[in-house]
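Demo today. Your pick:
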Amino acid sequence: MRKWLVWTLALWLWAQGATAGTVLVVGDSISAALGLETRQGWVNLLQERLQRQGLPHRVVNASISGDTSAGGLARLPTLLAAHRPNLVVLELGGNDGLRGQPPAQLQQNLAAMIELSRASGAQVLLLGMRLPPNYGERYIQAFAQVFADVAQQHSVTLVPFFLEGVGGVPGMMQADGVHPALIAQPRLLENAWPKLEPLL
């Protein structure tokens, strides 16, 4: 009987370790909830949803306003070592595009972040971005294609356009026309959730 109890306890402890995990969000101002209180942003709404559903995951928001894919790549090794996430959500690239940086550089940085994340044992969810029409059709298409290409080449789960139903939609953006408003935060979570949930 005692041996059975020890075995049962060991299985329970193993199950707790197997199901608990950390979700690391590495993003820019969109995930940092610029212009809002941090608790109002979609990342915090994700943590609240996980808690409501009884999921043990802890969400770490490592997003910094203004960050680029190069900045995220530079920060990622330290973040992976500190938090040991099971899932890394990459929401970067928008600032690369707004600054007119080469799409090839964005692709290289995202690929490196995926490889680093996987090497640490984490799965990856990539949140795709698009640019406003004033950046020129050729650059816009090349920018958007980066996310599709990286996802395909590295077999990564992709949300094609994270700001679907938000970007450019009246009332969904703040006055600057760049950052999602408070009302848009639940929509951002809904955009990510169908691809994010299976990875948990």
Notes: Residues 62 and 95 are 16 Å apart (CA to CA).
